[in-house]
């Protein structure tokens, strides 16, 4: 248990599908999955109500399949199904370590998980369950970033935490450019105007319209989620 009380009552964590891949080129690295689940458990045990959105890029991404000749909408539905697989994987990893969860899919799949029902999701959160929102917004031509933005607004989240492979937003790609500098804070407008691609533009403008801050941090180091949630460590805030 941390000494300082959490600064947020309810947050949404967005993790890309690629973050679950580890060093593999496809699919789920169960070691990374379990480590991420431990980080999430730590935050839930600190008393924060947690919503979770996991992408599907480790399995299928609509745009890349469309680039190889598949119809875009068809490919996007495959991408949405990939996010359901990741959601189920994370549900399993969390329940194994004693965290209560519910998966709600924007595409109803009654033998697999609950359909997305806003009021039911709110009730789960109040009861301390992690709600994993799968299938994005349930429509093609969107991303799970937009799904995360939409759900964070619907659930009344205090912030959206975007867990990535880097510890914030930089002036350039820090893996390629050693002179790249990290922003401490940014406005939504700067992100859009500079085309910083923290989230896609529709997700960023939805966050702006609903005045929900975005916190970009590294999900790679064990324990970092709770640390950043408590205002410690390294991250970029967009507000
Ligand atoms: N997708 C979609 N509608 C949504 C959310 C996702 O069509 O509301 C599809 C889209 O093809 C996308 C894929 O699902 O490429 C996986 O989601 P995303 O690319 O956001 O995953 P991430 O990059 O976070 O791993």
Question: In words, what does this structure look like?
Answer:
The chain has 8 helices and 9 strands. With 239 residues, it is an alpha/beta fold. Helix 1 links the parallel strand 1 (10-15) and strand 2. It is globular. Bound molecules: uridine-5'-diphosphate (UDP).
The bound ligands are: uridine-5'-diphosphate
Shape: globular
* Helical proportion, percent range: 25-40%
Task: Give the number of DSSP strands.
Answer: 9
Low-confidence stretches: none
Mean pLDDT: 96
Query: Which sheet architecture does the biggest sheet show?
Result: 9 strands, mixed
Counting H and I runs of at least 4 residues, what is the number of helices?
Answer: 8
**Largest sheet, spatial ordering of strands:** 4-3-5-2-1-6-8-9-7
- What percent strand? 15-25%
Radius of gyration: 17 Å
Task: Please supply descriptive tags for the structure shown above.
239 residues, alpha/beta, 9-stranded mixed β-sheet, 8 helices, 9 strands, 17% strand, binds uridine-5'-diphosphate
Short description:
This protein is of the alpha/beta class and 239 residues long. It contains eight helices and nine strands.
Write the topology of this structure:
Elements: E1 10-15, H1 30-45, E2 49-54, H2 62-67, H3 72-96, E3 101-105, E4 114-115, H4 118-126, E5 130-134, H5 144-154, E6 159-164, E7 185-186, H6 188-193, H7 201-209, E8 214-218, H8 224-229, E9 236-238
Parallel strand pairs: 1-2, 1-6, 2-5, 3-4, 3-5, 6-8, 7-9
Antiparallel strand pairs: 8-9
Bound molecules: uridine-5'-diphosphate.
Residues 16-18, 55-57, 61-63, 75-76, 79-80, 82-83, 136-137, 139-140, 142-145, 147 line the site of uridine-5'-diphosphate.
């Amino acid at each position: 248990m941390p000494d300082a009380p959490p600064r947020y009552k309810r947050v949404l964590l967005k993790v890309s599908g690629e973050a679950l891949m580890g060093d593999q080129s496809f699919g789920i690295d169960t070691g990374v999955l379990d480590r991420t689940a431990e980080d999430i458990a730590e935050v839930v045990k600190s008393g924060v109500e947690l919503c979770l959105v996991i992408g599907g890029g480790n399995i299928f991404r609509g745009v890349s399949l469309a680039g190889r000749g598949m119809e875009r909408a068809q490919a996007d539905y495959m991408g949405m199904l990939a996010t359901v697989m990741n959601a189920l994987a994370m549900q399993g990893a969390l329940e194994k370590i004693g965290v209560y969860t519910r998966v709600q899919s924007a595409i109803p799949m009654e033998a697999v998980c609950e359909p997305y029902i806003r009021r039911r999701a709110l009730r789960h959160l109040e009861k301390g369950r992690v709600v994993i929102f799968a299938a994005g917004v349930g429509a093609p031509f969107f991303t799970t970033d937009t799904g995360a933005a939409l759900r964070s607004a619907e659930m009344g989240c205090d912030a959206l935490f975007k867990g990535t492979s880097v510890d914030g937003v930089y002036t350039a790609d820090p893996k390629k450019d050693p002179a790249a500098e990290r922003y401490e804070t940014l406005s939504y407008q700067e992100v859009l105007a500079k085309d910083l691609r923290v989230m896609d533009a529709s997700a960023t403008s939805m966050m702006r319209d609903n005045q929900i801050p975005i916190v970009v941090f590294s999900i790679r180091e064990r324990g970092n989620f709770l640390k950043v949630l408590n205002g410690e460590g390294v991250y970029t805030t967009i507000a």
